[in-house]
Amino acid sequence: MCRQRPPHLLWDLDSQGAATYTLQCEPNERITAKKLVSGKRELPEAVMSSRYDKLDVLPADFSYRNFDVHLSERKRPAERLLKMSRSLRDIYDVLMLDCPPGITLLSENVLRAADAVVIPVIPTPLSLRMLEQLRAFTVENEWTDLALLPFFSMVDRRKSLHTEVIERTRAEFPGILKTEVPYRSEIERMTWRREPLPAYAPLSEAGQIYQALWDEIAHRIKFDPPVRAATA
Fold first, then answer.
1. Which residues of the chain have pLDDT under 50?
2. Which residues lie across from 11 on neighbouring strands?
3. For residue 89, which of 224, 187, 231 has the smallest C-alpha distance?
4. In what order do the strands lie in the sheet with 116-121?
């Protein structure tokens, strides 16, 4: 009997592979960025099952550090990822593209391919500057249909700077998500345990915060399939 595909796919585009590591989805076979971009290998070939019923993973590879180089060698390089992901949109309801930070050719590809971008923001001035740059970049490219969904992460309300930045950012970005993820050691333990916190402690305070964050994102996007959501 053929295995039915889960509704969600996470593509880890960060060469460091934190999501791949945490979800224990290291591949047995390396499929490099060059092979994927050139079309010598197709994305569905690289997909792996995760330990979770509703999630497949397209694992990262260290060669992804050169993704920009391989994209730049193709025709219409800023739209290559959109073309590549079409083979996945017929299979999955939700595609999640985990992108490393920064505005690069790869991230531009991700932004062009996505319906929404979920942006973790540490409440510091430099993170706020990054958010302002990202908003300006989307406005410059006239991506009016792209939903920006920033949320505060690693929040420590004991720090006056965090409180000041949060208040200023909420005033400038009224669309920022209400859910705030605090700085907690139990959240950092996810990478130690190599599993998502809601999977092993769903009723904990931190687990409920992540559930609230997911619910808020789902409500904003409305998840009319297929949805392509990027994390920056």
1. 1-2, 225
2. 58, 97
3. 224
4. 48-49, 55-58, 8-12, 94-98, 227-231, 116-121, 147-155, 180-182
